[in-house]
Amino acid sequence: MPPKNSKIRTKRKEAAKSRWANQYRDEGISDSADSETEEIDIETLKTEYEDIKKQLKERENQEEELNKLKGQSVQHKQKIKNLEDSIRYQKSRHDHFKTRSEELESEFDWQLEQIEELEKSIEESERKTQQLKEKYEKIKSIEKVYKQFKKRHSTQPDTPKRCGPSLKPIAELSKRGKLKRIQTVIETLQKMYGDDFLDVLFSVTKKVFPELGGQLKLTITETILLFQKMSLTIVDARISNIIDSNRFRKIPVPEYECEVWIGILLDKGKEETKLALNILNKDGPINSVENITLIGCYTGPENYNWLSNCFKEVAEEIDNLNFVTASNGTMYPVRKFFIGDYKCMSCVFGLAGTKCKYPCIYCTEGFEGKYGLVEFEKVSDLRPDHPFTDEDFSKTNSSLFKSIPPSQYNLPFLHIFLRIGTDMVNQLKKAIWRYDGKFLTENVINTKISEYYDNKDLTKISTNLSQVDEEIEDNQHKQARMHSIISDLEKRTRKFGDLTAVGDVCNNPDGCLAHDLELVLPRRSTQDWIQCSGKGCQTCECLRQGRKKKQEVIQPRSLNKKLTRFEQLLKEDFRIFDNKIEQLLVKKSELETDLRAKIIDIDNRLGTETQKFHKQLQLIGIVERDFFQQFTGNHLRKIMENIAFIIQPLSPELQEMDEIKSSCYALQKMAAIQNLTASKFMNKNEIIQFSVLRLDLLNHMKEYFPNVSIGSLAHIFFRHSEELVGVFQNLQIMTEQSIESLHHIFELEKQRTTIKDNFLKISRVMRWQYEKNLLSDCHESTQITVPLTKKQKEKATRMLLIEENEEEIDQLLSQDEHSADVSMNTVEEIELPEIEAWKQGEEAQEED
Fold this sequence. Notes:
The chain is mainly alpha-helical. Among the domains are: 4-148; 170-227, no CATH class; 413-442 and 607-728, no CATH class; 469-600, no CATH class; 790-847. It is 62% helix and 6% strand. The chain contains 25 helices and 8 strands. The strands form 2 sheets. Strands 3-2-1-5-4 form a 5-stranded mixed sheet. The protein has a 3-stranded antiparallel sheet with strand order 6-8-7, with no helix packed on it. Strand 1 (260-269) and strand 2 (272-279) form a beta hairpin. Helix 6 packs parallel to helix 23 and helix 10 packs antiparallel against helix 19. The longest helix has 123 residues, at 31-153. It is elongated.
């Protein structure tokens, strides 16, 4: 039972309720009204709750937009900061260029003064020449009168004297006489043939010039010397040919539109170092092989000593090439550019090397080392264009081409992008390697990476390969030295004639014959040398007789034996070195085979993602192991253009890695730069766009690859490309691509020739290359690789005539039957016998 208190409470509550009900009833308010008000309050609360909910949602959206705006403001601040940095950099560059322009203006004024002085000196020389001509005419008239007077008063009949050049063989002439004879040949050939260089070289290869009053026979070395002496007339001939064919174009830069731009190219391919030139004013592809003319070649390395010794005369001729005159009489000033890889550029410029203290040919600053150390606001001091100072800022030698200033050394764009692109692809490959080894320990990953990139066997094989190359080069150098000694010895023995008779006089103006042959013979002892002491020649027994006459009388019995023995030893050693070179070449091919097999074995142990990467490369035609784990320029171009396709099959997790994204972004930027600066002149908008792309790429490399080595090629691209583009408004008009292509054509042409003499092979290939230049200058394209003989030209003419007649026959057959019958009768009566005659002549020539 519940307690009584609870009952009392319930009763009280019921009484209170009844009182409240009566009260509400008296006031006219019921319980139903109360319930309705409660329902109304609930609905209003619901609507208020929905409104509050909407307001909260709107506020959340506003907060999200606020956060986005904050992120965008941070990005804009960063962009503004970058733009401020670039503006400061551009301002500093502007100030630098302003000072530079002032210096150039002063230099231009100095050059104008020099030109005025030269004009005055020319006028003075012309005046003196006119005076000398007048004196010569007077002397000639006096001489004529004197001859008539002498003829009248002479008792003996006047014997006619021989006129014209000397009939003496060129081998018997002195050094000065040989040069004079060659100069006479050049002048005579120019009078005979003009600019038709093919006929000139054809006559040179025949080695017979009856127009000189006798037969002049030239050796192969003298032929190549003659070729080099006449090589720069190629420029005049080609310019005239281009103008006559309406293929001459002016430079689309207002300051240089009246100039002829010529590129001097230098590079080593296989064993030969080649010097060539191409012409920029030709309408068509500039970097084509058909636009490049080979003007010099030697077998040896590309260092300064070899270049200065072999190309000294050609370099002097190039330095003197300041104007060219076309066939229409127009004279064009010449601006020369040097084109080659960075090693050739530093050698030609005279630097101590690519790793010296100041290795840049454009400025006097050292390299930054890594991308993270690059300073945007730093302005490099440029090397002066004039004068050319030696032993200054690591410049130990004078420039080979003294007329080409540093600002006209073109950027090696092909090798620059090859270096930067290879660095980016290597970063990409290393990231994929690390991803493949994510379930392995760090030591195993480092071991696998070192096995692929720093393999000891690969290093050992490549080291042996480089040693074999150096040994081959050394042996070839010794062999060439022996060849020069033998040829010099043969020339001197021919010059002195028969040395067996006692009492012959040594007519050598430079000194004793044995003294000139004082050369250390490799692999031989001192007893086989030919030496000459200062006082008296002990070996050749030359004794000085007569202090007044100062003649050396040869007791030539022992000398003749020594010369014969010396020549025999040289020829024996020449054959020994030849056999040794062949053995080294076989060893080199075996090492290359071992290297390829080792690389293939390493490739077979790659991870899954790496194999996918290599398969994608193979789909676009890139197989690294075929090129000893290296890329070519064409490979990098394909990778830059197809980088999205290459990384497509990789796992999504790998594609989202920062290293992969940053490497791909850099390669895409490089592709954009390459497409923007294709072989063309750039307008102002394109130059500004290039500047932005270059700065963006440099910022990206500095942010994501701060520890990657910048190297010499990247330095000259990021530091000096904008300067060259601003002056000459191009970056890839003339690149090293053309001479790289020439190496392949040169080797193919050499293989096609059946001549054993290497010098004669080179001269023939140079002549064929020049013939292709002439054909390309006249026509849009040519496929001729060798010159046609007379019979081949006649056969080609007959075949063309036959084709023309066949076309006429087809036209006649298309008419109505009656006219066709008549026309066929006329063809049978008139044209077919001519065709039969042509065919019979063709068959007769084939039988011959």
